[in-house]
Amino acid sequence: MPATYNRVMTDIRVRIAPSPTGPLHIGTARTALFNFLFARHVGGTFVLRLEDTDRARSSIAYEKEIVDGLHWLGLRWDEGPDIAGGPDRGAYGPYRQMQRLGLYKGAARRLLEADLAYPCYCTPAELDAERRRQETAHLQPRYSGRCAHLTPAERAAFEAEGRRPAIRFRIEAGPVAFDDLIRGRVEIDAANLGGDLVIVRADGTPLYHFTVVVDDAAMRISHVIRGEDHLSNTPKHILLFRALGQPVPLFAHLPLILNPDRTKMSKRKSQTAIGDYIAQGFIREGLDNYLALLGWSSGSEEEVLSLDELVERFDLAAVNRAGAIFDRERLEWLNGQWIRRLAPDELVERLGPFLEAERIAGRIDRVPSDVELRVLMPIVQERLPLLGAIGDLVGFLFVDELRYEPALLVPKRWDRATALAGLAAARAVIADVGRVSYEADELEPPLRRLAGERGWKAGDLFMAIRVALTGRTATPPLFDTMVALGHGRTLARLDRAVALLGDAA
Fold first, then answer.
1. What span, in angstroms and rounded, lies between the C-alpha atoms of 326 and 432?
2. Measured at the alpha carbon of residue 504, what is the angle toward residues 500 and 505, in degrees to the nearest 5?
3. Which string of DSSP letters, residue by residue, matches 164-217?
4. The last residue of a domain, from among 380, 398, 416
5. pTM, two decimal places
6. Boundaries of domain holding 81
7. Is there a catalytic annotation at residue 267?
8. Domain end among 271, 299, 325
9. Residue among 267, 269, 412, 457 flagged as catalytic
10. What would the pLDDT profile of 136-169 be if each residue is shown by its tens digit?
11. What is the pLDDT of residues 5-45, one digit of tens each?
């Protein structure tokens, strides 16, 4: 396998080339991150190019989602558009394919003049019929080459019929071999490539296999780092590079991202949009860290790595060939580790939009002030797996009136009468403690004594109190929760719980 790079090289150029036909998804984000890490590790150039030739599905809204998503991940490119619909930055622009149509037209003309490509007059119906015949004969579908050697007269006859030709690239016979920087030596017989390749549609629109090669050549891309699903396309691209008289870049094909059942992660079956993860409260540090570990090993036991640390350690030689399993639990664990590392004031700021979303959804009645939220950091920061969990964790603090079924107040080992007596007695104890000090370490001992004196298990008493104060059976530590509620609100909620149980009698 050839050397992937030398640390002192300065002519390394890589790119991420998303199509603005859908949102930024996990696979594209992981590929962008690996290109970014590689470029920064070796001091190379990272390029963003938008492949927008699918005019029917491309949109400025998707372009914005992709560009904003990459920015959110902290991936800064050296060349390309900085904002959706905005101007380009870099010497090899424009960086949107629809603005490069003249370049593709000129490249196609050169291939035609060299007889490395030819006009194809086959209609969709003829091609479909040919494909069905091959399927019936159990043959691998491929273009027969029926237009590959037309005479000028035959072409003129088709033109007279009003047929508009596509342009096909001649696929030369024989094996196509290359050294993949991740997979080693790869060799694919050109006979398996489906025959001569359409590079320009009959309407003049260039196709992906053609534009990607023309652009990579024009932008002097040295390394093409992309997903394994493109591996079968690489021989076509190599042949096109050669036909255009351009140097062939080095290729590195990243392992597929797989679901836990080892099926391919797809937009139809899995949650793949980066925007969904942002909306749920994953933070960029956690998502970057996790995406980097999807198919790459740092070479150590360390898992929690900053973007700068990832840049320092990244090596294509450490990328795995096997598919990478997407593990939601591990992602949440890593995300939680990064939440713990945030400065409290920064976490308060990041939580703001999620609390506002809770208010808009009607799950809380008001958004706490930064000062109120800052006080909660000791019981929040260690328990948040993602920012969107803030409502479930402490939303009960910002609700004017809790709503829950009275039956929830009765622990499994108690009956309604015991729960009513327990809450009434606890209310008296808490009221008495509050006259002197209302702190967690002052509240727990007398409530434990109460349970012991009445012959109750402390856990049952504490569960009844927890539900009365929060409406939930799982919360941050009970006594910290009571302090956060405050003495007056704690007593008021206990009074309401006692009334609920009384009314349910």
1. 53
2. 125
3. PPEEEE---SSEEEEEETTTEEEEEEGGGS-SSEEEE-TTSPBPHHHHHHHHHH
4. 398
5. 0.91
6. 13-88+258-325
7. yes
8. 325
9. 267
10. 999 989 999 999 999 999 999 999 999 999 999 9
11. 444 445 999 999 999 999 999 999 999 999 999 999 999 99
